[in-house]
Amino acid sequence: MDYKLVRTTCPYCGCGCEMMLEVANGKLIGTFPAKNNPMNNGKLCIKGWNAHEFVHSPERLTKPLIRKNGELTEVSYDEALDYTAAKLAEIRDTHGGDSVAFLTSARCTNEESYLTQKLCRAGFQSNNVDHCARL
User: Fold this and answer.
1) Cβ(48)–Cβ(17) under 8 Å?
2) Which residues have CB under 8 Å from 42's CB, separation 6+?
3) Distance separating alpha carbons of residues 115 and 129, to the nearest angstrom
4) What are the residues facing 71 on neighbouring strands?
5) How far apart are CA 80 and CA 123, in angstroms?
6) What is the DSSP string of the chain?
7) Is there a contact between 100 and 89 (Cβ–Cβ < 8 Å)?
8) CA dihedral 134, 127, 85, 113 (to 10 degrees)
9) What is the model's pTM?
10) CA–CA dist 52, 93 (Å, integer)
11) Can you tell me the distance from the alpha carbon of 16 to that of 9, in angstroms, rounded to the nearest whole number?
12) For strand 27-33 and strand 18-24, is the pairing parallel, antiparallel, or unpaired?
């Protein structure tokens, strides 16, 4: 059995807690806190402890999907991005910037959340932006 520990930063919030990911035979099997990180001092919240569980979920989307003729159809990333950009622009142009809102995820980095709010405010002239992990 090929077993290794991979040190990383928890993806759930901007605190910077570190964790060790357990990898066996190329598959992520567990998570536990890094003992010597000054941020989390060998502790993790419940989200951190379970950070590995979504990776191998059979319900996880792995390819972009667009609804065509009432059915979700697998498409290329380019087609999905073009479709999404066109629909958002259409909504903004028809109903104004405040007709859209952006919500970022705790799984996004701080930089990704910053870019999302920048897109919302500069690209859509809207302040309808929020984050699911705000305190």
Assistant:
1) yes
2) 33, 34, 35, 36
3) 11
4) 68
5) 19
6) --EEEEEEE-SSSSS--EEEEEEETTEEEEEEE-TT-TTTTT---HHHHTTTTTTT-TTS--S-EEEETTEEEE--HHHHHHHHHHHHHHHHHHH-GGG--EEE-TTS-HHHHHHHHHIIIIIH----EEETT--
7) no
8) -30
9) 0.64
10) 41
11) 6
12) antiparallel
- Tokens representing 28? 């992520």
Tokens 């990911």: give the residue. Answer: 21
Instruction: Please report the domains of the chain, with CATH numbers, ordered by start residue.
Output: 3-49 (2.20.25.90), 65-131 (no CATH)
What's at 75, amino acid-wise?
A: V
Q: What gap in Å lies between CA 61 and CA 87, rounded to an integer? A: 21
Q: What does the block give as tokens for 98?
A: 């405040």
* pLDDT tens digits along 6-25: 999 987 777 889 999 999 99
| pLDDT tens per residue across span 64-84 | 999 999 999 999 999 999 999
